[in-house]
Amino acid sequence: MTAAPAGAPVAAEHMAEDSRLLEVIRLGHPVLRSVAEPVPEELFASGRLVDLGRDMVRTMIEESGVGLAAPQVAEGLRLFSYWVPETDEEPEMSPTVLVNPEIRAVGAEIEEGWEGCLSIPGLHGLVPRYRRIKVKARLLDGEPISLTADGFQARVIQHEYDHLDGVVFLDRMDSAHSLAFEPEWERYILGEEPGIDEAAVSTTPP
Question: Which among 160, 184, 186, 192 is annotated as catalytic?
């Protein structure tokens, strides 16, 4: 998912110096529509998995994203990176890589929010997502992690999780009526909603 560029300098502090910038593939590439494979046990704590995770974090930040799934860099594995920019209501959440994640909704509350995607550049649309979710996953070293996410964090995680199953945000939209190119979105939609927090709506998880 994409984020407001203003957050990038803060997030850049978390990039590993020896990490690489990866190519983000676009809609039409077959990997984006394929179901990713679970990361096998032998890859945990391996140089390949750690390097991939670090490279994904760098790519996510340099591309002004708040999330990036492995299929978006043509790696058919079940992992994604994400971070959450600071807002008036919430502190920044530093970049994290979740491996072999599982998610489930907490309650039935659904809310619509604006999303974009690094693999579908230039487009934004309103997407319904669960307001609150529980997540179980592992970190790059294999350590288990569980968390409860709500609001924007939950939206980003659901967006990235979808990529692991070959799903993009366009598939989740109730209607294509809200689709807008980025310049028009910024001019007519952000400009018409006083007080709207761009970092909280420009969720272009790749």
Answer: 160
Question: What pLDDT score does 199 carry?
Answer: 40
Closest CA to 117 of 58, 174, 158: 158
pLDDT score at 3: 63
CA-based nearest residue to 160, from 183, 199, 127, 190: 127
Task: Give the amino acid at 83.
Answer: W
**Residue 13 appears among annotated catalytic residues:** no
Which CATH number does the domain housing residue 23 bear?
A: 3.90.45.10
Spell out, as residue ranges, where the chain has pLDDT lower than 70: 3-14, 192-206
Range of the domain at 153: 5-85+93-201
- CB distance 65 to 205 below 8 Å: yes
Say if pTM beats, i.e. exceeds, 0.85: yes
